[in-house]
Amino acid sequence: MDVGAGSCPYRNLLQHCEYKTQDFQQLTSSQLRNGSYGKIDYVCDASSIPVEDASFDVIICTEVLEHILEPIKLIEEFSRILKPGGKVLLSAPLGSGIHQEPHHYYGGFTPFWYKSILERNGFNEIRVEENRGSYAFFSQESIRFVASTKPWKLKMDIISRLLWLPIWIALSPILAIAIPIISRILDKYDAEKKFTVGYHVVAQKGFK
């Protein structure tokens, strides 16, 4: 089951198994036109999916938790619809700008949140891994800074824009090219990874 499947990016990768999808709305006609996605199987609240208990072997839920108003209820639902021994694969950003508004409710989930809530709902063998390290996070924000400070995007008068333009042109190669390249090299040596793009989580539902 792919929860919050959206455009169903994993469909082609999972053709060897029975792939079911859930989202709060159906795909648009333009998404369906080429036939590569297929329709959403369950159009419903992710915290109340109309299936029997212990229906699925695996649940995938990527970059969705921050868009769920009550994410703990979502984890409870995963515990209900997963078979004993089944696995859930989660990912969500630790920090991101507002997106897919108005359905963006949280700024990020920590390893402590994942472990606490998953254990409370009968999961074990919980593995939480950083989605890259601090320097990749800084690289992401550096690129975002360049994109968001284009002179024609800022609420400036014409004189301020003309003054800012040469500074922005001078900084852009450093912030959008040099820093990301250096950050990619340094990221593999990051020992703490307290700043990260997000986390990848795998957990198994217990047999009791």
UniProtKB/TrEMBL annotation:
Asked if the keyword Ubl conjugation belongs to this entry, the reply reads no
BP-aspect Gene Ontology terms: methylation
- Keyword ATP-binding included in the entry's annotation: no
Any stretches that span the bilayer, and where are they? 162-182
Source species of the chain: Thalassospira xiamenensis M-5 = DSM 17429
Which GO molecular function entries does the Swiss-Prot or TrEMBL record give? Answer: S-adenosylmethionine-dependent methyltransferase activity
Q: Which Pfam families match?
A: Methyltransf_11
Where the record annotates domain Methyltransferase type, the positions are: 2-89
Listed name of the protein: Type 11 methyltransferase
CDD domains in the cross-refs? AdoMet_MTases (cd02440)
Keywords recorded for this protein, A-Z: Membrane, Methyltransferase, Transferase, Transmembrane, Transmembrane helix
